[in-house]
Structure to design on (49 residues):
């Protein structure tokens, strides 16, 4: 579930960079949160997928 959300956020982030939407800043924040959440799970030794 978390992996799916991270992938969707990456796609939205790339679309935001290409099309220069005004919500690009919000997508950046969500992307950073998703990456931090994945890193925390990896550090704890939990399965990401």
């Amino acid at each position: 579930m978390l992996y799916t959300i991270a992938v969707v956020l990456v796609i939205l982030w790339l679309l935001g960079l290409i099309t220069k939407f005004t919500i690009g800043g919000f997508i950046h924040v969500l992307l950073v949160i998703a990456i931090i959440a994945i890193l925390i799970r990896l550090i704890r030794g939990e399965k990401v997928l």
